[in-house]
Design goal:
This protein has one domain (about 5-70). About 80% of the residues lie in helices and about 0% in strands. The protein has helices spanning about 5-25, 35-50, 60-70. The longest helix is centred in the first third of the chain and has 24 residues, at about 5-25.
Length: about 70
């Protein structure tokens, strides 16, 4: 695995980790709405970046979480 592939793989894993935290936060009533909204925007940006690299496996899950955050 070359350096670019390693970085890309790490980015995918980090994105999924953030998604898990966002999913948990989306289900909590004690998280401020503005924070949820900002997190949804970041997930959308990460999702589109991953898609441009050819990683679409997480798209549906990211989209679902974005919807719950909004």
């Amino acid at each position: 695995m070359d350096r670019k592939e390693s970085i890309e793989r790490m980015a995918v894993h980090a994105a999924y980790g953030l998604h898990l935290v966002a999913k948990w936060m989306s289900e909590r009533d004690d998280v401020p709405a503005d924070l949820k909204s900002r997190l949804a925007t970041h997930l959308m940006a990460i999702d589109s970046s991953l898609a441009s690299l050819g990683h679409s496996a997480l798209h549906d899950e990211f989209e679902s979480t974005e919807g719950r955050l909004r």
